[in-house]
Design a protein that fits this description.
Blueprint lengths: L17 H25 L8 H17 L3 H40 L5 E3 L2 E4 L2 E6 L4 E6 L4 E6 L3 H16 L5 H18 L8 E2 H11 L3 H5 L11 H10 L4 E2 L2 E7 L12 E4 L6 E11 L1
Antiparallel strand pairs: 1-2, 2-3, 3-4, 4-5, 6-10, 7-8, 8-10, 9-10
Helix pairs in contact: 1-2, 2-3, 3-4, 5-6
Length: about 290
Amino acid sequence: MYTNELSETETPEPVVDVLRTMSEEERYLRNMRKAIRTIERLTENEPSNNIYKIKQELMKIEKILKQTRLTDLIEEDVEQRIRPVKSEMPEWEEQANRSFGQRLEDALKQVEFELSGNYPLLKVLFYTLEVKLYNNNVTIWYGPQQERLDTCKPIPEVVAKKLLASHKKITSRNFDDEIFLLHLYEAYKATAHRSKKTIGDSIPVSDIILEYALLTQNKNFKINPVKSSYREYGRVFFSYDLYQLKQRTIEDHVLSLVTATRAYTRRRSGFIWIPSNERGDGTYISHIKFREV
């Protein structure tokens, strides 16, 4: 006798939502056509100026090809359309780099900065400009990619403006050799006491920075330690202040900066970079100590 019941060894076939599948494929094809047309438009005139946008559209196409069930039917045609674009991309990228580099150099000259280095890492004084045209961004670093200062789109005038603002923020602060050294010595002694160490011992630089930042806060913060009263002071300021410090001796003790070994450079908290000159050379230190003279 006929029965439509499944036996214990049989499993039901999966139900395929045909309409939903068709709808998805229509959307994939629509987006594919849109991406291809966009690439055609972007490559008609000065494609080197549109590297980022072209790459974004190529990524969209590659993603769709992985998602659609019609890959076997459309992949060959799509590849034929975008293959010439892919082959030209290296040359367009080189053109884009040359063009951006020249325009950036001109923009930096307007604010009296001199550009050097090679892509993707360009140099200005003790700053690094990490240029990623294919990601449509430029990252401004203090030192050799040590402390991130800012990010922006690769627009030369914007990069120059942001770099100048960061430079002024770092270098235009009031600085007095004697006061800085005094506060540094006080921070060192306080940290050494809390760590049950004696004067002359090496203290981790990260501990010193924290103590110094708290020690030098204004009266309002010490009375009511809230964020709005906090005076910004971090690793970049501390690094630059050590760089511009000329006086090293206080109360018969001389400041000594301990060069970081490889073990201490594995973690950002274990060291700090200090410029040696305005060309961008520098040293890594892990500890600070005041030794008796």
